[in-house]
Give the backbone structure.
Amino acid sequence: MPATIRRLLVLGGSFDPPHHGHIQLPLVVRQHLERALPAPASIHLLLVPAARSPHKPFAPRAPDKHRLAMLTLATEHLPRVSIWTDELHRAAYGNASTSANTASPSYTIDTLTRLSQWLHSPAAPAHASDLQITLLIGADQALAFHLWHRAAELLRRFTPVVMLRALQPTQPTHHAHPTQPISAQALLAGIATARSPEGSSAWNADDLALWSRTIVPTGRLDVSSTSVRAALAADDQHTLARALDPLVLAYIRKHRLYQA
């Protein structure tokens, strides 16, 4: 990592499989953020494949080694983009030591805390302790963020940047039609209505001020890992060509991934 890097933009996900939306939208955010900085090329995108998301009931379809290999193929030609495999390694170690059949959920607060600790360790580059860590999430995740593990601490320590795009059809809200782009105003209104389990407001005024400064419009890509898996099952060549890096598609076919 060059000494010019001042900020890590961290995106976690299953990447099952990794598609253009996983890569292109974060790069749009990085470009947007760098325009406001005095030094160009100062933000590094760090992708963190999850062993299992705590927000999804099932483990990823593809084994960890294949998801990592596909993500590597999709990003190895991009400058200032890296993959951090901490969650995969933690899950593999835990499963080996407990003989568990499935990985424990990957909590974002634990991952970012470990990243911060590593950046301040002797093993890290000399300038790493000065790096700012920023979490990158989607608008749908922002609306449900109050349900995340240690959400308030996560917000205040690693204030997220929100990709303002269309909400996924599988997660509709009353703030916008799920197939239409949500506005920043509607997103903030949705965040403000979030309630704790006790019924009180999930976010105080300072928290809402943080949220209001972290929204970046990204446009829209009509692609998801679910739709890609469906296209693979249907052999939908048009969708696959539009959604996947050719190297990733070739890898999927070579290893016969996502077959019914």
User: Anything to note?
Assistant: Residues 7-222 form a domain with the Rossmann fold fold (CATH 3.40.50.620).
